[in-house]
Amino acid sequence: MIEKEHTLITKNFPETFDNPLEFNKKLDQVHHIMETFKDLIELCGDDPNRNGLQETPYRVLKAFFEYTEGYREDPKLHLEKTFDVNHKELVIVKDIEFYSICEHHFAPFFGVAHVGYIPNQKVTGLSKIARMVEGYAKRFQVQERLTTQISEAIEEVLEPKGTMVVVEAKHMCMCGRGIKKSRASTTTSSVRGIFADKPEARAEFLSLLYK
Ligand SMILES: Nc1nc2c(ncn2[C@@H]2O[C@H](COP(=O)(O)OP(=O)(O)OP(=O)(O)O)[C@@H](O)[C@H]2O)c(=O)[nH]1
Ligand SMILES: [Zn+2]
Prior knowledge:
This protein is an alpha+beta fold. It contains seven helices and seven strands, in the order H-H-H-E-E-E-E-H-E-H-E-E-H-H. The radius of gyration is 21 Å and the shape is flat. The relative contact order is 0.12. Residues 102, 104, 142-144, 171, 173-174, 178-179 line the site of guanosine-5'-triphosphate.
């Protein structure tokens, strides 16, 4: 078990490799959280030592590191690899699937992001836009912040004439618990530059998106 925990730390926090103080601090936190997960299982009414649950605290922690990978990178940096392409009209990457975690309940919310911008000299690789979306999705989030972070990253790095982002998602905290509306979905948008100023720019984006 100890070996697995070490691997978890070196994989997710490679900077602690040469820093025993930081490494041991993370190791203490890992031990502490695994004990807490055991308490959670017991409090909910099951036996943390029964066969199927013995490794669950470790599995859950490992999964959480995966859900939150985005904290350990700066997603904007993906956009910095730009190309010299003379394109002055709208670029839209639509249906970028994402999987995020609601910061209120730690329940998943997931769906698609549609990202559009009108370049002003700088054009980035299409996959880099999806990588950037992933980086912000893999954090504890609310949908509104995710949407804004995506548009602000495009604005900051590509300095385009305008940016428009639409995010559509389903929130598990509204499905299996609470209000239990499993068909409800949420749409958010964020507009900058020409999309904020001109209704016809927004209309063009939406007509290409929902044709
Ligand atoms: N605006 C917004 N709200 C969210 C998002 N994800 C979850 N929520 C909401 O966060 C709210 C938290 O409300 P609370 O009253 O503090 O928590 P709760 O008692 O669990 O609320 P219920 O879900 O209504 O049972 C709920 O209304 C959720 O629907 C999100 O991405 N954006
Ligand atoms: Zn929630």
